[in-house]
């Protein structure tokens, strides 16, 4: 038995591994696409949702250490917590979603929290199909397309790599 015959399984194992990993990455990409499309759809739909009176219960911005950045010191993340209440058909509900748009950076988060101080009356846009789904700032923006674009790349890149690997193995006659 020649060396080539003894090692014939190697390209098949490598191409199998590449295919499995590529399929897993592509599945993750499909998840991002589905989530991104749903967020975009809800953001756009929220523009036409009816508005009810609500009240801000809590509004704060918090910066927390999230781990070590090596020799650069601790890394931090900044988030806002805005909680509001509203009433639909005599039932008190609470919401946390401010917008379907993305706040970019600490400045945007602080500005958003400043627009909604605790105790302030606000207009709450409520989904007529699901009264527990509400938002203070209706609409979607270009940042909503980022998960869709990332998902598309996560589908297309592995597809290209797997296709290239299969074609190369077929051309070399190892499959």
Characterise the protein shown here:
- This protein has 175 residues and is α+β, with helices and mostly antiparallel strands.
- The chain has two domains: 3-39 and 149-172; 50-137, Beta Barrel (OB fold (Dihydrolipoamide Acetyltransferase, E2P)), CATH 2.40.50.
- It has helices at residues 3-6, 9-45, 105-115, 146-172; strands at residues 51-68, 74-88, 91-95, 121-127, 130-135.
- A hairpin with a 5-residue loop joins strand 1 (51-68) and strand 2.
- The longest helix is centred in the N-terminal third of the chain and has 37 residues, at 9-45.
Give the % helix. 40-55%
Question: Taking Cα atoms only, what radius of gyration do you get, to the nearest Å?
Answer: 25 Å
The overall average pLDDT, rounded, is 88
H-E order: HHEEEHEEH
Structural class: alpha+beta
Q: Report the biggest beta sheet as strand number plus sense, adding barrel if it closes.
A: 5 strands, antiparallel
Number of strands: 5
Strand order of the largest sheet: 3-2-1-4-5
CATH architecture of the largest domain: Beta Barrel
Q: Please report the number of helical segments.
A: 4
C-alpha geometry: elongated
Strand content: 25-35%
Give the distance, in angstroms, between the N- and C-terminal Cα atoms: 18 Å
CATH fold assignment of the largest domain:
OB fold (Dihydrolipoamide Acetyltransferase, E2P)
- When the domains are counted, the total is 2
Outline the fold blueprint.
Blueprint: H1 3-6, H2 9-45, E1 51-68, E2 74-88, E3 91-95, H3 105-115, E4 121-127, E5 130-135, H4 146-172
Antiparallel strand pairs: 1-2, 1-4, 2-3, 4-5
């Amino acid at each position: 038995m020649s060396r080539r015959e003894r090692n014939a399984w190697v390209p098949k194992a490598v191409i199998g591994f590449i295919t499995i990993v590529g399929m897993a990455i592509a599945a993750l990409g499909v998840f991002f696409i589905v989530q991104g499309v749903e967020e975009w759809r809800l953001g756009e739909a929220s523009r036409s949702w009816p508005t009810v009176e609500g009240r801000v219960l809590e509004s704060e911005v918090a910066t927390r250490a999230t781990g070590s950045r090596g020799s650069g010191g601790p890394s931090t993340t900044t988030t806002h917590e805005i909680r509001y209440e509203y009433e639909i058909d005599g039932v008190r509900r609470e919401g946390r979603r401010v917008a379907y748009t993305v706040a970019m950076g600490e400045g945007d988060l602080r500005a958003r929290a400043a627009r909604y101080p605790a105790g302030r009356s606000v207009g709450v846009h409520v989904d007529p199909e699901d009264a527990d789904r509400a938002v203070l700032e209706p609409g979607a923006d270009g940042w909503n397309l980022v998960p869709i674009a990332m998902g598309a790349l996560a589908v297309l890149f592995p597809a290209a790599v797997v296709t290239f690997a299969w074609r190369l193995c077929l051309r070399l006659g190892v499959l």
